[in-house]
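Data deposition worksheet. Section B asks for the primary sequence of the deposited chain exactly as it was used as input, without tags or linkers unless they were present during the calculation. Section C holds the resulting structure in token form. Section D is free text for depositor observations; keep each observation to a single sentence. Incomplete worksheets are returned to the depositor.
Section A, Depositor: J.P.
Section B:
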Amino acid sequence: MTRRPPFPALRGYVLVLGMAGGISMSLAAQAATDTYRYDTVHSQIVFSIDHDGFSRPMGRLHVAHGWLRLDPGDWSRSSTELDIDVTSVDMGDAAWNNAVCKPSLLDCKAYPTAHFVSSSVERKDATHGVLHGVLTLHGSSQPIDIPFRVNRVGKTIYGMHTVAGFSATATLDRTAFGVTGFPEAIGHNVAIWLELEGIRDSQTSSDDKPINNKEQP
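Section C:
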């Protein structure tokens, strides 16, 4: 006679509980990663480059749009992607802006957008890390490392939005991206500062517009 295992129904119940527990843990892990859309009003990119040894003028670029996924408990699960409007370059003078956009430099007509996509996030301590990824600029894609600081993740002063804020720096060689004009007058190394804010995705509109000015800060 075949011997039946004791309490088969109980074993089945335990199996179901185990499966349910695994699913719950998986869902909890997924829920820990929130998606944010960059607030293009409060996000800014500033750069500086040497001008013939006399000074290092500053310029600005506009973040067109982008997103980030943030897992505060496991930064390795975080990622980001953003587009930069190269045609928005602002050197503080209209004629200078036009000169920078000419084919000899940024060639804004041919390459109106720069794109960054992360490949990994390296955590250094509780608030600092390094973002590794690829920047596509002027038709060339190059790896870039971006040290950053997590400034704050929380509700705005009026409690209307959950915001993640970051400060970051980077340095790139413009000639590596094929921007080679005026090598004797303009430096090769470009210093970059990024101030970025993202609004948690559940609190942003589907068309990725920034929050209304009346709802800021």
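Section D:
Residues 5-31, 204-217 have pLDDT under 50 and may be disordered.
Helices lie at 8-31, 94-100.
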